[in-house]
Specification:
about 140 residues, alpha+beta, 4 strands, about 25% strand, single chain
């Protein structure tokens, strides 16, 4: 087991290492759509690349999710066949959002032996997500 401090240090080491191994400017938090953002996640059991739609205005959130849903077959057939769509997703804090994500299980931020595999997954998945987003950005924003 790792102490809280050791776990925090490992997380920091992973993300610094990831940034050095795959240096590039991600559009992650810069979609230019409020509360519509790409994110990375890595914990003791899994890694994920996510597109979160977090708008407090339920109508806006539904509109964006429906646009993404209308592109589901394109996303799955041409970019990310493993993509999972969830119109209602609850965060740990109880907040309700919509989420589209790709999941990699069997990896752990506490196990350095899985770091390279995870970094490649995060990098490749995010590149495909970004490519999809850029190809359909005008439709999504309209």
């Amino acid at each position: 087991m790792f102490s809280r401090e050791e776990s925090k240090a490992l997380r920091k080491e992973f993300w610094i290492s990831f940034g050095k191994s795959f240096p590039r400017k991600w559009i992650l938090y810069n979609t230019k759509i409020k509360n519509f953002s790409f994110k990375f996640y890595f914990d003791k059991k899994k890694a994920m690349v996510m597109l979160d739609i977090e708008d407090q205005d339920l109508e806006k959130r539904i509109t964006y999710y429906e646009k993404m849903e209308s592109l589901k077959s394109v996303l799955i057939e041409h970019y990310l066949p493993e993509a999972i769509y969830e119109d209602i997703y609850f965060l740990d804090n109880g907040k309700e959002i919509s989420r589209i994500y790709v999941l990699k299980e069997g990896v752990s931020i506490h196990n350095k032996n899985t770091w390279q595999e995870t970094m490649v997954f995060l990098n490749e998945t995010m590149q495909k997500f970004e490519e999809f987003y850029l190809d359909f950005e005008d439709f999504i924003k309209s």
